[in-house]
Amino acid sequence: MNLIYENFVRQAFGIARGTNDVDRWGDPASLANTDVFDVDYIEKVKAAISYSMAIINNYILEEQGSNLTDASMTAMDDYIKQVINAGNKARIYNLIVDYKNDFDKYLK
After folding, report:
1. Which helix (H) or strand (E) holds 47?
2. Number of domains comprising the chain
3. What domain range is 60 assigned to?
4. Helix, strand or coil, per DSSP, at residue 18
5. DSSP string covering 55-99, please?
6. pLDDT digits over 89-98, tens only?
7. Rounded-to-integer distance, Cα 84 and Cα 7, Å
8. Which of 23, 54, 76, 103 gives 20 to 30 Å between its CA and that of 65?
9. pLDDT in tens, 24-71
10. What is the pTM of this model?
C-alpha cells in the first residue's frame, strides 16, 4: 500500500517536472515517502494524492484532450472528490489503484 502511494506521488511530480520520476521526498512538500501514508497523516495523504491526480489530469488533458470522452473527464475530477471525502487510507489506496487502472494508458 505505502509504496503504491509513494510511487504515485513521485510519478505525478516527475510529470510536472518533465522527468520520469522524482526521488523519495523529492516533491516540494516532501510527501513522496511511504512514511507519510499513515492514518496519523490522513490530511497530508489526501492533499498529496488529490494534488498528484490534478497534475496527472492536467497532463492527460493537454496531451490527450481530444481523445477523451466526457465521461473520462468527469471521472478524473470525481477521483479527486472521492479522495478528499475518503474516510481512511484503505479507501485512498483503492482509489489510487482504480485511477491508475483507468488512466495510466494515457501516460505511455
Report:
1. helix 42-64
2. 1
3. 2-20+28-107
4. coil
5. HHHHHHHHHHGGG--HHHHHHHHHHHHHHHH--SHHHHHHHHHHH
6. 999 999 999 9
7. 19
8. 23
9. 877 888 888 888 888 788 999 999 999 999 999 999 999 887 788 999
10. 0.92
